[in-house]
């Protein structure tokens, strides 16, 4: 498989600068306006996405296409899996944020004059929008690299372009240092979770990452708090089902549900929700609604509400558990929380 790992700055939506998502974090620090051109990597233009990343820091910023396809003699390579990664917004390391499949990767950077939707920003990768996935913030947890402490070899490090072929155009041998490459490709190819695919998805993402704080404090947009609350609820769920004799498998990275719990011939698909509120209402994505219908009697909702924060962490043993098993949605209780209106 032809693959390219491309490091870019971190943004929520890559739809261009907007309030709360003004510029890629860690991208564009070397140009005049300090705005990385990857800011528009998931902005649709006539059904296509025009992606950018800066391969290295020396002009003319050409890509070594032979490290993607050693047989190429062209200035472009087609049918490439391009995996975008960025600095982990929570914690250390670098995480996969999305990808293009079946992409065309170009040696040089093109400077368009007729893409006002993208402010005519440069690009060196093109893909169909239908072949692209931008992960929700909650799914940006797949760490790049082998994870061997104190070992730099084999990791992307600070390189913007990471290839499956070495500088002699030989495939990197599968080893303790390089096995993560095939594992990352497998993760992408088997991913079944949610994605940010529309304006409505962006709205949901904004709402979902506003952790409601009681006592009239309103919504506090904080990805760190959300991750802590999510993990607190996940831990409580796992402990609960293990105590009841289930084998519990974490599927939250690449499936639309968080756990599979198995015991004898029984298999449960578990959606975990954590909140600081009283848990009277929860926010559901389209995927979660469809998932509840799909798995029927096997679907379980595990809700942990009233979780308390203790400085920069969740308070141990806080939270109250509510379990809906089977979790069958009553559609009369589904309430739309926003509408979109097209201005023409």
Question: What secondary-structure arrangement, pairings included, does this model have?
Answer:
Elements: E1 3-7, E2 44-45, E3 48-51, E4 76-87, E5 94-110, E6 123-128, E7 132-134, E8 161-163, H1 179-190, H2 199-208, E9 210-213, E10 218-221, H3 223-243, E11 247-250, E12 259-263, E13 266-274, H4 286-295, E14 299-305, E15 309-310, E16 313-314, E17 320-324
Parallel strand pairs: 1-4, 13-14
Antiparallel strand pairs: 1-8, 2-3, 3-6, 4-5, 5-6, 5-7, 9-10, 11-12, 12-13, 14-17, 15-16
Outline the structure in words.
With 344 residues, this protein is of the alpha+beta class. It contains 4 helices and 17 strands. Residues 211-221 have low confidence and may be disordered.
Which structural class do the helices and strands define? alpha+beta
- What oligomeric state is this? single chain
Element-level helix/strand string = EEEEEEEEHHEEHEEEHEEEE
Q: What is the strand content?
A: 25-35%
State the domain count.
Answer: 2
* pLDDT < 50 runs, ≥5 residues: 211-221
Helical content, roughly?
10-25%
Q: What's the mean pLDDT score? A: 89
Count of DSSP-assigned helices: 4
Report how far the terminal alpha carbons are from each other.
Answer: 43 Å
**Radius of gyration over all CA atoms, rounded:** 22 Å
Number of strands: 17
Largest sheet: 8 strands, mixed
- Overall form: globular
